[in-house]
Amino acid sequence: MTPRALNASDRGAGPYLWRFTPLQRALHAMVIVSFFGLVITGLPLHFPHAGWARALIRVVGGLHAAGLIHRICAIITFAYFAIHLGTVTYGIVKSGNPKRFFWGPDSMVPQPKDVRDVIQMFKWFFGKGEQPRFDRFSYMEKFDYLGVFWGVAIIGASGLLLWFPEFFAKFLPGWAFNVATIVHGDEALLALSFIFTIHFFNVHLRPEKFPIDLVIFTGRTTTGYMQEEHPLEYERRRASGTLDALTAPPVSRAGYLWSIVLGFASLGLGVFLVILVIWALLH
Amino acid sequence: MFARSFARLAWLATATAALAVARPGAATAQGITCDKCHGNRDFLVGKGGPQGDSALYVPAGILQDTRHASLRCAQCHVGYDAGYPHRATSRVVPCSTCHAAEARDWEASIHAANAATTGDAPTCVGCHGSHTVYGAADRRSPTHSLNVAALCGRCHADPRITGTYFATADKTRARTAVAHFHKTVHGNALTRAGLVVSATCNDCHEAHKVLPADSTGSSVNRASIPATCGACHVGVAEAYDSSAHGDAYRTGGVTTTGHSAPVCVDCHSAHEIVRADQPQWLLGVVEECGTCHERLYETYFETYHGKVTRLGFNLAASCSDCHTPHNMRPASDTRSSVYAENLVATCGRCHSGANANFVRYQPHGDPKDRAKYPLLFWTWLFMTLLLVSVMAFFLLHTFLWLTRLAINRLRGGGSAHSETQP
Question: Residue A223: closest CA among chain B residues belongs to which residue?
């Protein structure tokens, strides 16, 4: 028996199938890098009374450096948001099948099945019935995606207000900056609290996946993984004969190592930052 | 002052007349020169008593180029010009004959009181020297402003002196006062920049009428502080006088917050005075303001400005940036920097382009204060409920998931479908 693979999406029977495009993986990498930059430089300002706040600011090179990093990461955020909106819009216009972006198994839009899946999941929690079987995106993945969508819009807009207050005061009253400060900080706190606990658990740390799932970095999973995590998609594609088109080669050694490093570094850093938040909230 | 000048004039007249017949210090009315004996070490052997012979050794030219160059020995050593052996026995030198005002001030000082009882405290010669009195403007004088800290430090940095004469609570502060002074902006100006106009001990504590701060007549008593500091800091004193703090100071000392009116040293301290543009001071002064203005202090830290300051960076506005350092007045006062019509200018000092919209920012906006800031309160409540409900739902989701997997494993059903499916 072969040892259990470290990467959850390497476990189970082959062959490999594509799940994420290079662009999607690149955008997610941009999300990771920019989000960490934003959290590390923003967290001390949200909890300036915390014992670690001044130390963290020193680590990034002082307040001026922190402000600069925060703004650079904001630009990266706006960039991936714009690229994503652009590619989705392009897809809607050019694909000849705009409906599938808004409805159906390939859409990120929540649907009646997602509500049924949540109910089914809770039934399973209490020992009544089987675990729900997911298609391409589970309700948890949709929540992650829409959470980032909402978060970037809200945090991004309030952040712009605070970045250029003199400009926005041409058409907004000054108290809008008070509101923006609260919204920006609290929404960011929600984002990092959710991503570094719930997202990490759902995607990496739950026993089925532990310790890590590198599919967002490598872009591919084993057929066995697909059958467990996205059985409806697997069956749908096999029935329609579109499964073979997804066949992928195994990831290169270098690609795998990069994924391991980025994946574990992100996991560790995220958990560390959550500990800082809990520390600040308790003191 | 006039009396003193007059005394000096009278003196000059007498001295000039005396000069016509004799060099000062060289001859007495009887024609016997003092230095015949006092300039002769051999003659003085064994005559000095407990203070030693050299105490009596006073060579002829000793008063040359001192402020007392024109004086005769007997003008200070009264009665010693009546021949030898001296019949006069007084060792007291009557400086007050000429320096009446200084003598009166000294008589009122803590030094005089202690000198009378214990002899430790300085009399005139203790600070000014005996024969070589040069005047404070002379670099050689111990009372020159560059030498004063060392002069006072001779006693005030001495643990025996401070241990004897200061209350227990003040002993350490008293002993380190001179050392601290050297680190202040005043001390730095003197010792590093060599600025003789900078304040040294006597500028604040007075030269002769030295009194503890709790004496009402003291120049460093709270009641006298604005005048004492204002003697040099004229512009600041003007601003302070026209401020709400200055108003309270003049009208009995209680401010609208119910505290006694702050005077200079409350914010700037006394012996730890640092430059007001240093971060440590600007951050510390927020704490000072907060000791009376508790609510404004708390709400300031709810804002971006306050949070940056709390992080230890002097980059965002702190109290004095908006309220001015010395001329602070309530927002209802038309002269106030935070009066509605002055806000565009005040905010504009940092935020170029600030307009009427911009200054509707609430620099003390507290989202926990529902009555005063309802919009901030509801925003905060919505965001908090959103955070709490999302996290509560998914943490429950996670907890139940783990529990179900644990139960399945205990029942031998396998925890993860990766291990149960082919």
Answer: B422
A124: domain range?
107-137
Instruction: Report the phi/psi class of residue B184: left, alpha or beta, with left for phi > 0 and alpha for psi in -120 to 50.
Output: beta
A21 HSE (CA, 13 A, CB side): 5
End of a domain among B66, B97, B128? B97
| CATH classification of the domain holding A41 | 1.20.950.20
Which of the four pLDDT bands, split at 50, 70 and 90, describes residue B416? very low
Chain A residues close to B417, C-beta within 8 Å: 131, 208, 228
Is B264 inside any structural domain? Answer: no
B379–A183 CB contact, under 8 Å: yes
Do A197 and A116 fall into the same domain? no
Contact A63 B311 (CB under 8 A): yes
User: Do residue A123 and residue A193 come from a single domain?
Assistant: no
pTM, entire model: 0.82
Question: Do A209 and A160 fall into the same domain?
Answer: yes
Domain residue limits at B10: 2-97
Task: Please state, as a whole number, how many other Cβ atoms lie within 10 Å of the Cβ of residue B49.
Answer: 9
Determine, for residues B358 and A169 on separate chains, whether the beta-carbon distance falls below 8 Å: yes
Complete edge-to-edge strand list for the sheet that includes strand A16-18: A220-222, A16-18, A247-248
Cα–Cα distance between B379 and B364 in angstroms, integer?
A: 16
Min Cα–Cα distance to chain B from A50, Å:
9
The pLDDT tens digits of the residues spanning A120-167 come to 999 999 999 999 999 999 999 999 999 999 999 999 999 999 999 999
ipTM of the complex: 0.95
A167 falls within a domain: yes
User: How many independent structural domains does chain A possess?
Assistant: 2
Query: Which residue bears the tokens 């000849």?
Result: A96
Hey, which residues 12-51 in chain A have their CB within 8 Å of chain B?
12-13, 44-46, 48-49
Q: Which of B412, B420, B317 is nearest to B364 (CA)?
A: B317
Residue A229 falls inside a structural domain: no
Please state which of the ranges B155-169, B195-209, B236-250 shows the lowest mean pLDDT.
B155-169
Rounded Cα distance, A134 and A112, in Å: 13
Contacts with B239 (C-beta within 8 Å, 6 or more apart), sequence order? B324, B325, B326, B327
Q: ω before A15 within 30° of 0 (cis)? A: yes
Element (H, E) at A247: strand A247-248
Q: How many domains does chain B have?
A: 4
3-class SS letters over B223-246:
CCHHHHHHCCCHHHHHHHHCCHHH
Residues of B in contact with A45 (CB under 8 A): 304, 307-308, 311
Q: How many CB atoms lie within 10 A of CB B176?
A: 14
